[in-house]
Design goal:
This protein has 134 residues and is of the alpha+beta class. It has four helices and four strands, in the order αβββααβα. It binds two RNA strands through helix 1, strand 3 and helix 2.
Length: 134
Amino acid sequence: MTTRYTLGKRQKLKSRKQIGELFAKGIAFNQSPYRVLYLLSAKHNASLQCGVAVSKRSFKRAVDRNRVKRLTREAWRLQKTSLEKALDQSGLQLSVFLIYTGRELPAYPFCFEKAGAIVQKLIRTIHESIAKGA
RNA sequence: ACUACCAGCCGCGCCAUCGAUCCCAUGGCAACAUGGGGUAGGAAAGUCCGGACAGCGCAGGACGAUGCACCGGUUAAGCGCCGGGUCCCGUUUCGGCGGGAACAGAGAGUGCCACAGAAAAUAACUGUCCCGAAGCGAAGUUCUGCUUCAGGAUGAGGGUGAAAACGUAGGGUAAGAGCCUACGAUGCCGUGCAGUAAUGUACGGGAUGGGUAAACCUUGCAUGCUGUAAUGCCACGUAAAUCUCCGGGUCCCGAUCAUUGAUCGGGGCGGUAAGCGGUCCGUUUACUACAACACGGUUGUACAGAGAAGGGUAGGCAGCAAGAUCACGGCAGUAAUGCCGGGGCCAGAUAAAUGAUGGUGUUGAAACAGAAUCCGGCUUAUGAGCUGGUAGUUAUU
RNA sequence: GCCAACUUAGCUCAGUUGGCAGAGCAUUUCAUUCGUAAUGAAAGGGUCGUCGGUUCGACUCCGAUAGUUGGCU
């Protein structure tokens, strides 16, 4: 069976309420140009949901903001499968928000590499929380 | 031919792999799967104008505020566009051509005009001239000149300034002055002609007291305010809670009880509160019920209205994409634009899709740049290529 | 999405009937001190965000444009 690299409606953070909760209670860390907010909770309806944001302060033009968001989503889409697998084993739900804080327009390989590092870090935190819970 | 600038046209094509969103069909209770199709611009931008649509509001009047200002056309509308006129600037082969104009009013009033200058709008100062008196010189009857003073006439001379009381020439006068004449300039009035009109032109009359209205202002015309996160509906939830303010006097008439009074109804005057779009006038509506008592009043409660602070939700549907629509053809019109015909359906999200990677045309990565209610304009940004114009350089004839 | 305000010396800000470009701090020089700081005196430093218009004349008035900041929902 070949794994499909999708990023549909159910895999994005859509609800204003959920986003508010994430910003209020979530845990944050920095991965050079990105700032990552995440929140682990009991499984509800979806295992992994993510959102992307770019500040108007760092990119004045809407075209540049769209470009950064698209590159970030693309890199996340191609690399999040291992994270999903870990979540399925743990039975938890994870909400992630990626905020781009850099000032320069990134190239795609750079985004790909950083997204990979973020995924690895999140997998490690999931394993730690499982160990703590057990 | 190249370079620069200006105006206009155009606004990355194909293939492979992996995705996003919307619609349709099939399967499925559903999540979803499969197949097919659509998916950013000429400026989507700035938010500078104008509308559609929605809410608040809607007896009427006055004031205020804001905007506009040659004429005609066009439009749903406009500070847009088209055509015409007037003025200004540039160029000219003097026929024109190109560009610009916030192009109502300075003879309604108020204010301001630094420095310089006699003076920045009253006409003063200086000056010129006339007459009279005094003095001086020449002279020794007279006459004439100069100085000072008093009275009168005058607005030409004063060289500064961005701007100086129509300009030039002649006449005229004691000296002068549009005081008069000729030519010219500006703008006003009347008449004729041309034009829908602005206006032009001819004749006649009378006139010439600066500039500034993108200073206040005057005249004319127009305009409510807020915005689709508007607004309407459904679901869930909270607080039908808390605090503050306010809720009626007098006169007349009628009826009933009854007899110095009470109750009910109607009307006049006044009061309070709220609404009438920003203010005022004026106007409309409301001013209720019960209880207790130290009863012509006070207090309390309920209820209605206004305000304060606070609590809850942040899910869904409509608005929301077929329209002042798009391209084509024909007709009317100088044009903007309008009408007719058959045809097309062309983004619709809600943390927000329209993409990523590789190859190729093509060297080297394409420029400016991303819908959020929708239209009509304006302004600004823009690579390569193409078209037209201007300037420069080089080569040739 | 909608609506306001601001831009003046290196920094923070003044600047109104339109005619002068200013203050404080900072910089430089001099004085004071054995030396430094403080203090005193003097000097330099400006296309008034940019472009165009009105006016004799514009930081000021008008229009366009660039940037910055704030507010409402």
